[in-house]
């Protein structure tokens, strides 16, 4: 049985940078807290805890320790609240997310209604929306475009995407927006806020899925980009399992397989990928 890794997998620039910044800050300033999980990966969270970075779920749980903003970023109201509390802030927002936030603010300031294509519950999306003046919508599924746009939505519309969406899905969404709501829109600005790291990992996963008879996608279950990778592999009709660690591998999945592909999301550390590959070799029939 051959185990083949996707040509691009694992930690992206933004996550690597955030983890390094938090570790460095804890080394310099002493223990710090992170507002939410740094990345959607339990192993990374555990490693950071060992370096003096504790996770807090809400601002109310903040104490005298410096507070780190995660790679997903936050809205300006959170920054204002931290400032009001006199907290020192370690801002590890990924520069690509910062760019999406800046576009949301610019469009909003110029009078556009903003539509963000993505998961309304995702931290990154909530942060981006915080930079608008309230004339904004999130839509996660193309089918939501079948309903009329709300009356308050200006005729000038700006669209951007959660950074981890796929190119194909975002393009289809924009196309359907135009086809369905052309009569409501006087000007449409589409900002490509997709992340290259994500899209090239998706392309690598797609390529690999076509040449194997089983795909394993490694990463936290709450990691949006890892879930997308699993969807991309499944869309190619190959049996796909999303696992968080080597412990979840099931020998039964491997029966009769000749080529097993391994992909991993942008928040998955190298060590977890290596463990999965090593375990696959141990379980190989
Ligand atoms: S996936 Fe892209 S946008 Fe998200 S943290 Fe990584 S580099 Fe930044």
Low-confidence stretches: none
* Secondary-structure content class: alpha/beta
Strand content: 15-25%
Distance between the termini: 8 Å
Q: What is the CATH third-level topology name of the largest domain?
A: Cobalt-precorrin-4 Transmethylase, domain 1
Oligomerization = single chain
Mean model confidence by pLDDT: 94
Helix and strand string, N-terminal first?
Answer: EHEHEEHEHEHEEHEHEHEEH
Shape: flat
Number of helices: 9
Beta strands, count: 12
Percent range of helical residues: 25-40%
The main sheet orders its strands as 1-12-10-11
* Number of self-contained structural domains: 3
Tell me the radius of gyration.
Answer: 20 Å
- Architecture of the largest domain in CATH? 3-Layer(aba) Sandwich
What is the CATH class designation of the largest domain? Alpha Beta
Name every ligand kind in the structure: iron/sulfur cluster
Largest sheet: 4 strands, parallel
- The CATH superfamily label of the largest domain reads 4-hydroxy-3-methylbut-2-enyl diphosphate reductase, catalytic domain
Question: What are the SSEs and their pairings?
Answer:
Elements: E1 2-5, H1 13-29, E2 32-35, H2 42-50, E3 53-56, E4 67-69, H3 76-84, E5 89-91, H4 95-109, E6 113-117, H5 123-130, E7 136-139, E8 156-161, H6 167-181, E9 187-190, H7 196-209, E10 214-218, H8 224-234, E11 240-243, E12 259-264, H9 270-283
Parallel strand pairs: 1-12, 2-3, 2-4, 4-5, 6-7, 6-8, 8-9, 10-11, 10-12
The structure holds iron/sulfur cluster.
Iron/sulfur cluster is lined by residues 12-15, 71, 94, 96-97, 163-164, 195, 197-198, 225, 266.
């Amino acid at each position: 049985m051959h185990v083949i890794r996707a040509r691009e997998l694992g930690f992206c620039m933004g996550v690597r940078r955030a983890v390094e910044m938090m570790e460095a800050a804890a080394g310099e300033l002493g223990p710090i807290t992170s507002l939410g999980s740094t990345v959607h990966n339990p192993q990374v969270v555990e490693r950071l805890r060992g370096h003096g970075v504790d996770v807090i779920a809400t601002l109310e749980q903040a104490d005298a320790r410096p507070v780190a903003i995660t790679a997903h970023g936050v809205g300006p109201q959170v920054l204002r609240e931290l400032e009001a509390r006199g907290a020192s802030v370690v801002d590890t927002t990924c520069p690509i997310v910062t760019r999406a936030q800046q576009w949301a603010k610019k469009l909003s300031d110029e009078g556009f209604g903003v539509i963000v294509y993505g998961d309304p519950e995702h931290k990154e999306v909530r942060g981006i929306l915080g930079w608008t003046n309230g004339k904004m919508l999130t839509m996660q599924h193309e089918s939501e475009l079948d309903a009329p746009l709300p009356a308050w939505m200006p005729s000038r519309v700006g669209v951007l995407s959660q950074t981890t969406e796929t190119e194909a899905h975002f393009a289809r969404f924009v196309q359907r927006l135009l086809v369905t709501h052309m009569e409501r829109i006087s000007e449409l600005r589409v900002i490509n806020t997709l992340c290259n790291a994500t899209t090239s990992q998706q392309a690598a996963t797609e390529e690999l899925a076509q040449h194997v008879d089983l795909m394993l996608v490694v990463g936290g279950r709450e990691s949006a980009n890892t879930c997308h990778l699993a969807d991309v592999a499944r869309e190619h009709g190959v049996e796909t399992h999303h696992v968080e660690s080597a412990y979840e591998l099931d020998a039964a999945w491997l029966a009769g397989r000749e080529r097993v592909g391994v992909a991993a999301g942008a928040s998955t550390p190298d060590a977890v990928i290596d463990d999965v590959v090593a375990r696959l070799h141990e379980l190989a029939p």
